[in-house]
Amino acid sequence: MKKNKMFLMMLVTILALSLVACNEPEPETETEEPIVVVEESEPITEVDEVSEPESEPEVIEAPGELSDDLYSFMFSLNGVIYSLPFPFTEMEANGWGGDDLEETTLNPNQFSIATQLTNGNQQISVSFLNLTENVLSFSESNIGRITLDDWAYDRGGAELIFPGNIRLGSTYEEVIAAYGEPSQRRESNLHTTLTYSANHYTGVEIRIDNETNLVTSLRMENFHERTDSPAFEGDLPDSVLAYVAPTDLGNDWSDFIVRFDGDLYQLPAPVAVFLENGWVIEGDPNEMINAQSSRVGVRLRKGNQTMRTTVQNYDDIAQPISHGFVTVIQFSHHDAVLPIELPGGITENSTIEEMIVAFGEPDRTEEGSMFETFWFGSIWREVVVSINVETGEIHSITVSHSPRSLD
After folding, report:
1. Can you give the pTM of this predicted structure?
2. Which of 17, 57, 96, 145 could pair covalently with 221 via S-S, beta carbons 3.0-4.6 A apart?
3. Which helix (H) or strand (E) segment is 69 a member of?
4. Which of 355-373 are b and which e, b meaning 16 or more Cβ less than 10 Å from the residue's Cβ?
5. Where are the domains of the chain?
6. What confidence tens digit (pLDDT) does each residue in 263-322 have?
């Protein structure tokens, strides 16, 4: 019995020790992270995305009825022809509009500086013009000026075409070929601006990028009412019919013979002769000049060049401008840039030294900050030459002969 107890106690002890041994934690062993081997793959080749070729932008051609005359003040906008000035309603009918056009007003003979009009994504700048005696809203007014530059074009693509098919992207050479030398040229580091002027607030301005040689801005304006003056039906006066055009320049500048744009004139010369040689009168040719009187500031235009002159009526009765006599011919880089030649072979390309050899010493000189001016002769009977101080080149030549009578 004792032995059984003993055996039992030993068995319990062995079981207890086994349980303790089983509950002891196993010693930690450090194991290395498995090394992941990344196999080198073939280099990735970028495949250019295949895109469909861009279609060429549609080029709108100038309509056949668009005049080649710059001073017709005609232009084509998206294929529709307009002539400045014209009622805004004409543009409105073709989808153009703007903000507050009915609320904003103009007083009589007033114009706006710049107003943006839109047609979908297209935009263009205009000036509204009121030529009436009443206050009008923009929507009731005329358009007197239109402007498009490459900034606005890039955002909408309005297609503005001037006479001679001149548009944004035309070259400098194409502009000169279409319009001739400008009335005024302004140059900066970035742009060259060509101005063709027919009158105050009447003309065209074209900006050309100096680097690309391409047109980047177009502006046309005409703030004067369009009138179609009937031809004067009266007969030319005897004084005009008696005029005989010279056949050569001669050698004496005081004979006042001038070759201007290839045609010979002896001042005073009939306006009618200028008209026969392709000049036109800007304004009303039937405007009357009192007997034995003159009209200063008459504008004659040939092609794209305009000359300011004085017209004298030598008759004892009133005569229209078209029946008077031109007493001043002027070449000028501000107005008529047309070839001129005087006796002695003097031209717009001559030097003042060459002119002194041909004409003798000037009767008077005057030096300013921009021009040095030389007078040959006396008032009403003179040749006046202005030299650009900076370049040393002739800026203008003015020949003036206004006798009291034609005898």
Report:
1. 0.67
2. 145
3. none
4. beebbeebeeeeeeeeebb
5. 70-222, 238-401
6. 999 999 999 999 999 999 988 888 999 999 999 999 999 887 889 999 999 999 999 999
Kind and range of the H or E run holding 203: strand 202-209
Helix (H), strand (E) at residue 6: helix 2-23
C-alpha distances (whole Å) from 193 to each of 81, 104, 205, 218 are: 25, 32, 7, 10
Rounded to whole angstroms, how far apart are CA atoms 102 and 99?
Answer: 8
Give the tens place of pLDDT for each residue, 389-401.
Answer: 999 999 999 999 9
Structure token pair of residue 81: 């022809």
CB 68 within 8 A of CB 163: yes
Give the residue among 255, 337, 324 at the shortest CA–CA distance from 295. 324
- In the structure, what pLDDT confidence band is assigned to residue 167 with cuts at 50, 70 and 90? very high
pLDDT at 62: 61
| Cα–Cα distance measured from residue 237 to residue 360, given in angstroms and rounded to the nearest whole number | 38
Report the amino acid identity of residue 258: V
Could you count the other beta carbons within 10 Å of the beta carbon of residue 137? 16
Question: DSSP H helical segments within 123-262, as ranges?
Answer: 150-156, 172-179, 238-241
Q: Is 10 helix (H, G, I), strand (E, B) or coil?
A: helix
Given this model, what pLDDT does residue 42 score? Answer: 38
